[in-house]
Amino acid sequence: MKKVITLLIIGLFLSVASCSKEDDSIDNSVAVNPNANKQQTGSSSNDLLSDKKFKSMIIEVVYVAGFEPSSTAISNFVTFLTARTYKPNGINVIKRSIPSPGNSPYTDAEIVSIEDANRTKYNTSDQIAVWAFFADGKSSKDTDTGVILGTAYRNTSFVIFEQTIQGLSDSPFKPSRNVLETTVITHEFGHILGLTNLGTALQSSHEDAEHPKHCNVNTCLMYWSSETGSGIGNMVSGDAAPQLDAQCIADLRANGGK
Fold this sequence. Notes:
This protein is α/β, with parallel strands linked by helices. Helix content is about 25%, strand content about 20%.
């Protein structure tokens, strides 16, 4: 049976953008409530899309040493956010490495524990915070016929199984790592933005009935490629990651986005 690459499992980021590394400080003068960043996937979609409450966004990218995402993929991610969200005070990315937790393959509970132990950025009065973890191992949900590349599991949290991505890219007959990373990162964040029908209301009927919370347009970033479909290799066969289709963009705009 042909092996299927699964983009994600869903768990129950115009402005000036900047990027820095090794910033793990917490400003203790600013009151934070970690519980606000521990809610259901898609529940903060309007806060992320609009500037009604949060005027800026900070993305905390944490990776296991040796599994740093490419600068191109992170730049593409910021471009994706800039195109879809209103954050007049900017989108800031901070990156740092941590030692391997040594738990691969990672269960959902272990991914949550890693975030809780290492996350330093939480929402403040006018800045929304996002956590992105790049793991040095695979998901415990991988099977002989399919692997998980990423998971959106909280309202501002997602994990990318970077070791799996590295094994499936940058070699003959495999996609570019930059393109594959960009595809998975933006797909996961699409779910955090409430797509499809996951906190951002549908403006038209385009949710895949067989694969809920995914778009039924097979060229859309939010499409679910089943084991009988063409597979992720065909979706990322070119030099650019898939884009959101017009229906998904209409949903985001109706929920406060661009």
